């Protein structure tokens, strides 16, 4: 059952307000939710087919995957105009992640070997998706810092354009980090699964 996970990113959009004297402030608001899709089967091949048939799709693709993380960025910024210059006032970057995971609904009566394989696989899927969400949260914080550090401009229109450019760069960097993580995970999947299975086998042996 190969692990192939994708994510969905929606463009960040900053709302704008002008302020004459409010102090600068910054904030990152991160939220996370979970949803599940049920699969059935009594063999590894049946579970594999169910994941391929019922798993979530990625943005822009009809292929289905064992799990996914949908990511939505947003944000707000205010601008302070003073002595003919404009600077960023308040900054708020938001990021919501929805983690979609498989749930084996016909586990009762399955063999111990298949249950062990499923436990290893499902835990790895969850770990992988949690890392996607963590990357998104880290990048939201990096974007907030980068926007807050932007230099003053001659007009708030120019300041607004600078914020838009910086947010676009932040999204592009986020996409690069997510793609890099997926590439590394794909290369190490077999080794990782063998290690997880060995740990579970050794754990069972030690418990006897």
Automatic annotation (TrEMBL):
Residues 1-26 form the signal peptide. It comes from the Bacteria. It holds the Pfam family DUF922. InterPro entries: DUF922. Keywords: Signal. Residues 49-68 are annotated as: Disordered. This is DUF922 domain-containing protein. It comes from Rhizobium ruizarguesonis.
């Amino acid at each position: 059952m190969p692990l192939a996970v994708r994510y969905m990113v929606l463009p960040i959009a900053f709302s704008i307000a002008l302020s004459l004297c409010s102090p600068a402030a910054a904030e990152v608001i991160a939220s996370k939710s979970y949803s599940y899709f049920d699969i059935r089967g009594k063999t590894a091949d049946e579970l594999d087919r169910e994941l391929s048939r019922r798993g979530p799709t990625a943005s822009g693709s009809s292929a289905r995957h064992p799990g996914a993380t949908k990511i939505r960025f947003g944000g707000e910024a205010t601008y302070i105009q003073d002595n003919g210059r404009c600077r960023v006032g308040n900054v708020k970057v938001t990021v919501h992640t929805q983690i979609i995971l498989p749930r084996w609904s016909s586990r009762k009566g399955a063999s111990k070997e298949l249950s062990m394989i499923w436990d290893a696989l499902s835990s790895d899927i969850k770990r992988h998706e949690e890392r996607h969400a963590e990357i998104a949260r880290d990048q939201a914080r990096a974007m907030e810092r980068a926007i807050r550090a932007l230099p003053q401009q001659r007009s708030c229109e120019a300041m607004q354009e600078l914020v838009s450019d910086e947010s676009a760069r932040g999204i592009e960097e986020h996409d690069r980090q997510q793609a890099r993580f997926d590439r590394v995970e794909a290369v190490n999947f077999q080794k990782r699964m063998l290690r997880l299975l060995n740990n579970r086998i050794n754990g069972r042996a030690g418990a006897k």
